[in-house]
Q: What sequence folds into this?
């Protein structure tokens, strides 16, 4: 194990963490404030990737495609909230789970009809290709650094919005006391629609920026949704700060585990046994982490004040 | 002199800046009815929550029947015989009245890891449940879904479930809440009939009921016991009158 | 009791009996109507009925919304596949081992997830089962993504129980279904069953009468997981193949749907739900290859407008209808 490789994988972990954060931030707001279990959040991530693919093809510019797609995701999210999800707020969790599971099936098939079963690759503009030299002799792909930077910017922006603005105040009021916020004259349905639009845009944005690395494909939402669940369970439902820290933790552990667990195991196992067990165990790492954290803190690391388990 | 059945030693509980229980030391004697009165927000329900194990005190100890129960979970305390009723009626609303009580009797008979025989055909559950409901004037309502009972009847069922677990001591959190005067009077009479067999700690706003039933009364204000004594002594206590009974 | 209610409850019973009768005679009915594929479909529907029945114990009766129930089906199926891969083909070894494995997994997952409630519980059961899915995908020895082909069905060593005979195997599945129905009927009406139902109704009250709810929920979780393992054993034998897909969360979602479609907390409901689910999927797939574009919204409509499921509609009192 050499340290350059380790540093690269660490950065990859942070990059995955950023993507997870974008997804988890919307999810955790929707859970925490609306008490809605939305399994279809992964579908929005997938939809974002396909939007980006289509508009990149049409405009020949990935950046322009993202600029067009983000407002479209907001609109899609708002439409989804009004058509399908609004009626679910008053229902119990089982109804929400089942109905949004139905949405997943619907979106998956919709994408298959419009874009076909094969994935779509998205070419990066030339200035995002290639690597930069970082200190200590690390060469790192430019675009992955771009993802990390964008994630940090969004995280900072979200923090400012939630802490400093009127809508952030409403979000915090809604999270801690819905009736009180309603009594104070806050338009709760509108607030929910706006939050859902933001959540959809964040999820879609995550899908867009990851798509050049992974292609836009139909199964992409599933894996990342479950990982985002792990993130918000670890971070504490409703907490943006918890989501951020847990996303970084999860991203790094997952990435480093996949790269180095077999080497680590080889220290005390026969090499071929380590190579066989490594991939299997590393795919389980984040779940073990989640179970361990829950064992000691059933409400996650950063439960928001007044949260109920 | 008999040993007290329930003892609290400097029980303390804060909610942020609010002191709900303030170094409270109580001794409850077996067999009688000990009432806790006090204005709203005095920490009466919080006290019952701690005694019953549904809330952890910040500090202090609770001993019941000679055993330290401070760290025992709520169900374990119930199995020792320390049973509460709820101020906001807590019953199994989609069970029949009889099933509610039969289940509580079942819980009092030890573990329920019995997977095969039909519980609804078990006379050791059904008979005592019927008898108990009969005694509470609910006998005619056995087969009604408990969620469909009138409010007063639900309060009676609440008490019936607590009694069905075969308690040594009952923690009654406003048993008369929301009852009409007639129902209240009947409940008072019923509780009076249990006196001597079951120790009771009674929280109640209905002062007629409190003074009719209680052997001893503790007045709680801002989590602190400002007086404890017989009903007559409490009536005569000047500090109590000023703090609570509103007398000039 | 309300006369209309009595009549309608009988209707629910009649439908249950009818579904069972169709299952019982399908090996003769299917060739008679010229649709022999129906035998395989009903075999599959009965296997998923068992899975849905087991889920109904914890979800319908116990109020625990597990989104990871496919895990127990999957690990049992994999146990059969892996034992067979290593040359252990005897049913008498395969089946008990698979049941024990699913019981252990259910115990571990239950012990972790039951410490939490609500949304956390749903997400944790989902994540834990998904962990096994990824584990299966990375298990190169056992086929990774491609899955594991099982050379032959479990060998019972008994000439009258040759599972390679289509009809014999069909009736083994049918018998397993009847057994599960009977066992569940006893359990939900037993003292244990009353406690589980009481916990769903009002968990705080159950603690208030001295029930330590965690251990009862965990016991129910293990019983349900083991029963679902039986479905997994049968599934592995039916398909002669097991793949990570068996463990996928979509399977868990489908199980939930079968339970809800049939009627939560009704003893027979999940069976009706599973049979209707497979028939529906088959008909929709005939209609278009993109059948999920119809099925997804259908699922949402069931949730929004038919909450009690089929059983709930049959039992609904006339004046409500």
A:
């Amino acid at each position: 194990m050499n340290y350059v490789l380790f540093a690269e994988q660490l950065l990859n972990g942070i990059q995955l963490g950023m993507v997870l954060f974008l997804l988890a931030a919307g999810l955790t707001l929707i859970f925490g404030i609306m008490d809605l279990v939305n399994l279809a959040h992964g579908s929005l991530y997938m939809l974002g990737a396909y939007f980006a693919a289509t508009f990149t093809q049409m405009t020949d510019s990935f950046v322009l495609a993202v600029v067009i797609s983000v407002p479209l995701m907001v609109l899609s999210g708002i439409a989804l909230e009004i058509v399908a999800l609004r009626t679910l707020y008053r229902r119990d969790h089982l109804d929400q789970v089942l109905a949004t599971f139905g949405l997943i099936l619907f979106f998956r098939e919709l994408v298959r009809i419009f874009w076909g079963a094969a994935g779509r690759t998205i070419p990066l503009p030339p200035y995002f290709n290639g690597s930069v030299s970082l200190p200590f002799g690390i060469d790192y792909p430019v675009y992955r650094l771009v993802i990390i930077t964008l994630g940090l910017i969004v995280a900072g922006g979200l923090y400012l919005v939630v802490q400093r603005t009127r809508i952030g105040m409403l979000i915090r009021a809604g999270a801690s006391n819905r009736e009180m916020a309603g009594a104070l004259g806050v338009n709760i349905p509108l607030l929910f629609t706006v939050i859902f639009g933001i959540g959809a845009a964040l999820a879609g944005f995550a899908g867009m920026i990851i798509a050049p690395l992974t292609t836009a494909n139909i199964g992409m939402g599933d894996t990342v949704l479950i990982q985002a669940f792990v993130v918000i369970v670890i971070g504490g439902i409703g907490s943006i700060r918890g989501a951020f820290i847990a996303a970084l933790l999860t991203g790094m552990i997952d990435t480093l585990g996949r790269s180095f667990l077999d080497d680590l195991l080889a220290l005390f196992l026969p090499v071929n046994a380590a190579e066989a067990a490594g991939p299997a165990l590393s795919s389980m790492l984040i779940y073990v982490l989640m179970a361990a954290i829950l064992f000691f803190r059933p409400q996650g690391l950063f439960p928001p004040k007044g949260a109920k388990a | 002199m008999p040993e007290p059945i329930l003892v609290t030693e400097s029980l303390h509980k804060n909610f942020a800046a609010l002191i709900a229980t303030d170094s409270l030391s109580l001794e409850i004697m077996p067999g009688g009815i000990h009432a806790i009165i006090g204005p709203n927000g005095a920490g009466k329900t919080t006290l019952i929550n701690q005694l019953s194990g549904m809330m952890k005190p910040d500090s202090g100890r609770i001993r019941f029947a000679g055993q330290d129960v401070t760290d025992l979970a709520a169900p374990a305390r119930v199995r020792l015989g320390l049973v509460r009723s709820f101020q906001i009626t807590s019953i199994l609303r989609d069970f029949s009245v009889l099933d509610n009580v039969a289940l509580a009797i079942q819980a009092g008979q030890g573990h329920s890891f019995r997977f095969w025989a039909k519980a609804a055909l078990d006379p050791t559950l059904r008979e005592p449940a019927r008898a108990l409901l009969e005694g509470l004037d609910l006998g005619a309502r056995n087969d009604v879904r408990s969620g469909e009972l009138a409010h007063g009847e639900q309060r009676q069922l609440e008490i019936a479930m607590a009694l069905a677990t075969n308690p040594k001591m009952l923690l009654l959190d406003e048993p008369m809440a929301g009852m009409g005067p007639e129902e209240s009077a009947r409940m008072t009479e019923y509780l009076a009939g249990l006196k001597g067999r079951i120790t009771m700690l009674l929280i109640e706003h209905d002062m007629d009921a409190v003074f009719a039933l209680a052997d001893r009364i503790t007045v709680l204000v801002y989590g602190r016991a400002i007086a404890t004594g017989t009903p007559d002594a409490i009536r005569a206590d000047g500090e109590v009158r000023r703090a609570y009974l509103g007398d000039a | 009791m309300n006369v209309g209610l009595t009549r309608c409850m009988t209707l629910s019973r009649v439908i249950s009996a009818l579904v069972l009768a169709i299952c019982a005679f399908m090996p003769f009915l299917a060739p008679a109507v010229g649709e022999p594929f129906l035998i395989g479909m009903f075999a599959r529907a009965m296997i998923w009925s068992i899975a849905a029945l087991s889920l109904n114990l914890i979800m319908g009766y116990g109020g625990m919304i597990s989104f990871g129930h496919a895990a127990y089906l999957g690990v049992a199926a994999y146990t059969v596949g892996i034992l067979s891969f290593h040359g252990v083909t005897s049913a008498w070894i395969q089946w008990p081992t698979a049941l024990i494995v699913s019981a252990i997994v259910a115990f571990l997952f239950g012990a972790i997830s039951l410490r939490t409630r609500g949304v956390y519980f749903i997400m944790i059961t989902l994540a834990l089962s998904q962990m096994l899915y990824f584990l299966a995908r990375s298990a190169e020895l056992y086929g990774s993504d491609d899955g594991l082909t099982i050379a032959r069905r479990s060998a019972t060593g008994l000439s009258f129980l040759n599972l390679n005979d289509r009809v014999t195997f069909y009736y083994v599945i049918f018998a397993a279904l009847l057994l599960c129905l009977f066992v569940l009927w006893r359990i939900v009406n037993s003292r244990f069953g009353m406690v589980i139902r009481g916990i769903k109704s009002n968990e705080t009250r159950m603690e208030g009468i001295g029930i330590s709810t965690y251990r009862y929920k965990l016991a129910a979780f293990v019983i349900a997981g083991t029963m679902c393992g039986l479905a997994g054993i049968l599934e592995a034998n039916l398909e002669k193949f097991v793949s990570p897909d068996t463990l996928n969360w979509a399977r868990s979602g489908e199980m939930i749907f079968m339970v809800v479609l049939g009627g939560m907390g009704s003893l027979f409901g999940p069976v009706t739900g599973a049979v209707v689910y497979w028939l529906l999927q088959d008909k929709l797939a005939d209609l278009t290859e993109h059948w999920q574009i119809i099925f997804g919204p259908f699922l949402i409509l069931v949730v929004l407008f038919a909450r009690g499921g089929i059983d709930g509609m049959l039992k609904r009192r006339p004046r409500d209808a």
